[in-house]
């Protein structure tokens, strides 16, 4: 219907129509950019997708809007979430802790114990290092998925929306899931996929739960040590290779840690090195006021868990993307395969990829422990830092660079009157200079505030990034 441009009423009608169309497109995104209709795939037009991405980007910016005092955190660090709570949030939390949390925790403990007991009994007398018979796998799948679904109910997840089709083990034995953002992701995937997982080896010794994980043929890995990483890589390869006798799929969160979903950080390559097919799975959490992201850079992770478990309702969508069969080039290059799969998942989510990594998570955790805001103090990635220091010295080992960065960050945080924004004045620098020289084994006077002044703001303060580069230059040149 044509509307005259000069007509105010026509303009309002046009705006309403546009808003309705945009809303309809957005709903299609909620249902999936690629919508399954019977046996056909319905794909949004290029124009629709542009409108959709514009609206969703605006929503994501508001959902991860962070502030410190009256200042906005312009740089988004994927390991930090909004920590500020309103009086209403505190009232809801207190009421939830008193009336809701005890019942939920009791139910979760009971169900978890029953699941673990049944899984353990089903594998009694069996060699769990080898494939289990099909009838045991079917029983464990039923117990695991139904039990996890019940835990979801107890946590306030009453409806898990499923999009796409889950591949069976004959097609693909590896699910890669991202973004990993909440403490409930694993139980949601347990309810929808029912695959064995990969977990840190400390969990194997956890009372009750550990026995169930062992019986369910979870792969346990030590996060330190090259020998352990090689062993787990070999175990994954044995499980998911094309002619593997294993009929149980594996599930991995390739980011290896929780983020705030503003980007997909670097993926670990363990799921991709075997060169076998993988099925990407993306998780989308919908929320209004409380972001349940359980990130290492948050100032109070315990508080996030309490708020997550006392929310009346959570809404989550699990989207199964088509199975990705690696090309010959990708089979020969695990990094290429990893990045291509990550790009597909990021496109589905409508978020960028970033080079933040596991090292950045540890730095964000150290910053939060020192009451600093990672979004202010660490707007750069460790990968970009590695590139920068090559101009200083090409011979700095990665492990040494990380330890130096962490050491400078810890000393930086101890400057008197340091705020969460993380800016260093000359007087603050002078107060930590002596110990900073000692920490990095610098010769006396190797580092001075004068050398930093060119990068100072008008208020005479410098960033952690500026201080760090100056420290590294003083140590390695």
In short:
The protein is an alpha/beta fold. Helix content is 47%, strand content 10%.
The percent of residues in helical segments reads 40-55%
> Given the helix and strand composition, which structural class is it?
alpha/beta
Task: Fill in the CATH topology of the largest domain.
Answer: Glycerol-3-phosphate (1)-acyltransferase
Class of the largest domain, according to the CATH hierarchy?
A: Alpha Beta
Verbal overview:
This protein is of the alpha/beta class and 477 residues long. The protein folds into 3 domains: 20-63, no CATH class; 87-349, Glycerol-3-phosphate (1)-acyltransferase, CATH 3.40.1130; 358-476, no CATH class. It contains 16 helices and 13 strands. It has helices spanning 8-31, 46-63, 87-122, 134-154, 185-192, 209-215, 226-240, 301-309, 328-332, 334-349, 358-369, 374-377, 382-389, 398-413, 426-439, 464-476; strands spanning 34-37, 40-43, 67-68, 71-72, 160-163, 174-178, 196-200, 219-221, 250-252, 279-286, 315-320, 423-424, 462-463. The chain has a 7-stranded mixed sheet, sandwiched between helices. Strands 1-2 form a two-stranded antiparallel sheet. Strands 3-4 form a two-stranded antiparallel sheet. The chain is globular, with a radius of gyration of 25 Å. It starts with 7 loop residues before the first helix and ends with a helix. The relative contact order is 0.10. Residues 1-45 and 47-75 have low confidence and may be disordered.
